[in-house]
Structure formats: C-alpha cells, structure tokens
Amino acid sequence: MNNRLTLLWAILVGIAWLCAGCADAPRATEPAPTEMPAPTKVAFAVPSATPTLTPTATFTLTPTRTRTATNTPPRKPTATATPAPTSAPATPTPTATSSAAIPGEKYGTLAVIGARHAPQTTVSDVNLTVRGFAPTNAALTLVEIEGPADANAPRLYTLFADRRAPTIRATYQVRDHTGALITDPDVTLIALAATSGDTLHVPESGYTIGDGYGVLVVFADAERIVVTYTRDDSTIRGYVLYFEGVSVEPSLVALYQQANDAGRGTLPALRAGQAFARARGDVRFAVRDAGTFLDPRSRKDWWRK
After folding, report:
1. Please, what sign has the CA dihedral across residues 276, 296, 301, 226?
2. N or C: which end of the chain has fewer CB atoms below 10 A?
3. Average of pLDDT values for 126-141?
C-alpha cells in the first residue's frame, strides 16, 4: 500500500513538473513574436516621415535656385543692350544729316562789325531750350496789334518756299534771365505747322548787311539756328530770329563751328530767300527787336504781304 502511494505521488509530482515546464515554455516564446513587430512598425513610421520632409525641403530650394538662375540671363542682355542705344544714335545721326542736306546751297562768311561776344558764355541768349518756355492758351491765329510798323522788318510769309499763310499749332511764353515767364506780350514763341523735309528760307526784309547778304548767323547747331539782321555778333541789336526744332543744313553748321573756333572774327552769312534748314515737323519760332521778345503772331509786323 505504501509502495503504491509512493509511486502515485511520484507520478503526480512528475506530471506537475511537466505541466509547470509546459506553462513556462509559452511565456518565454510569446514576447518574441508580440514585441518584435511593434518596434519594427514604429521604426518604419519615423523614417517614413523623414524622407517625406526631405523631398519637400529639396523642392522648395529648387524653385529658388531656378529663379536666381532665370533672373541672371535678363541682366546680361540688359547690359548688352546698353551699348546698343549708345551706338544707335550714331546710326540715325548720319541719316538725319543726309536728309537735312540741301542740294545746291553754298554758304559764305562775313566779317563781324560792331558788338562781338561768344554765345557759349550766354547760352540762354541763343538756345531757347536752355532759357526755357511754357505753353499758353493764347489764340492760335494772327493778331492785330496797334501802333506803327517797320516796312523793312522781316516778312515771315517768305519763310516757306510756297510763301503760304501761317498755321499756328501752339503758343508759348519764353522765360527771362531770372526764370520768370515773360507775360508782356502774352505770346513770345509759336509753333508753325510744317511738313518734315520742308525747306526753310531766310525771310526777306528791306535790310542788307553787305556783300548781298541779308542776315548773320550768330548761332547754329544741328537742331536750332539764330540769325540777326545786322553785322553785330549780338542778340540784343536789331531784329533777331530764333528757329528751334529744325534740321540745320550740315555744311552750314560746320561752317559756323569753324568760325566760332577761329575766334568769331567772321561768321556765316545768308542771303534773303536762301535755304538754311529743313523742318522736322512743326517749327518753333521767336523774334526779338533790340533785345525784347515780341509777339510773333503780329500780322502788321511780320506777316504782311
């Protein structure tokens, strides 16, 4: 009996030990499959976000570099275009010069008698653009001004080859030496209608200045010319006519520059009716007498026939 109990107890102890071993085996292996996937999923989730951010940053930088590279080429053409305008005027200048030439015209010089000065020291006396002027709303017609008239004064209807009546496009007031507008008379500069290429001629008068000449050129450049009906190198003696915005005959400009550089002992002289420039469009015109700017619209003084 005792032997049987002892054997039974041994069997039960063995069974219990085996059961205990079986129970411990799953606990050792279960954490491995459960815990390994979890860290693996977390590990993949983090790198997954990192690559996503990296392309985003790369994409943002790429357009910025592209814009910088794109802006650089336009600057190069701009720098290249700068010399183009510089050389461009050189091309039109010969064209304008050749179109301003008046075939058959030859110009001479005449010794200056009386007042002499160098216009470059009083630029505003010969260049109305430097002096300045402003538009006014005065009538665009000839006007009747009371008082005596000089029968020998320049007759401005002979300015154009067809001796036509003037069409006034605009009126202006010239500034004095202080910069203030001259308001008496109320118009001191006008724009006369003309077609580009029209020849401009020395207005006839009852005066001559010697050797068959009618006027002395006291200033000339490519765009303007100033003539006086005396042999004085001055703009404050006798009648003085200003023509602005025209194409002065190139050989006449060259002759004036030569005389100016030589000391102005002689200056170019023109005969009544001689062509001296071509219109570029409307011709701006002003007149002075004894240094005073007068109304160029006055019919009895300038436009009588």
Report:
1. negative
2. N
3. 94
